[in-house]
Amino acid sequence: MIRQIPNILSFARIVLSIALLTVQPLGNVFYLIYVICGASDILDGYMARRMGTGSKAGARLDTVADIIMAGILFVRLYPFLKLPTAIIGWILSIGAIRIASIIAVALKHKTFAMLHTYSNKFAGMLLFLIPFFLDFPTNIWMYAVCGAASLSAIEELLIQLGSAKLEPDRKSIFHRL
């Protein structure tokens, strides 16, 4: 049972992300659930590495939990963001690059995987901070987030296209396993 704690944390993130659909956006309960989701995202991978229980299935579950959480947050926070058309287009472009990377992995390696690069972690951290910075000028914050997300998406696509084998734990385009 202890060996399953990282996967339980990832699954809990999925359940708690869905719970965000049932609470008032940006209310106290929303922030409480949101912070727990963020903590589970940090802890699942850390614990899996620390306990030596990392697996392909666990990495996929973590990625699915991240995608579900990001999608739900976009739906819940979109009305508060007041995004200009250019930013919406930029977000769609980032999504297209991510989809291209997923397709590249599926065609080359016959599996589903996303990389755990430093740039993906940095972009994820910036995305996580969005609800806490809604009082900050949204356009400036969104340009920073979209810039980091673009660089991480492009890096991941280039790694996927240029690698002969799947390297889900590759840290950057400049780092080999």
Structure notes:
The protein is an all-alpha fold and 177 residues long. Helix content is 72%, strand content 0%. It has six helices and no strands. It has helices at residues 5-19, 28-51, 56-81, 85-109, 118-129, 138-162. Helix 1 (5-19) runs parallel beside helix 3 (56-81). It is globular, with a radius of gyration of 16 Å. The model has no long low-confidence stretch (mean pLDDT 90).
Give a concise summary:
It contains six helices and no strands. With 177 residues, the chain is mainly α.
* Mean residue pLDDT: 90
Overall radius of gyration:
16 Å
- End-to-end distance, in Å? 30 Å
Query: Could you list the spans in which at least 5 consecutive residues all have pLDDT below 50?
Result: none
| Shape verdict | globular
Keywords summarizing the entry:
transferase, 177 residues, CDP-diacylglycerol--glycerol-3-phosphate 3-phosphatidyltransferase, CDP-OH_PTrfase_TM_dom, EC 2.7.8.5, mainly alpha, 6 helices, 2 domains, globular, 72% helix
Secondary structure blueprint with pairings:
Elements: H1 5-19, H2 28-51, H3 56-81, H4 85-109, H5 118-129, H6 138-162
Helix pairs in contact: 1-2, 1-3, 2-3, 4-6, 5-6
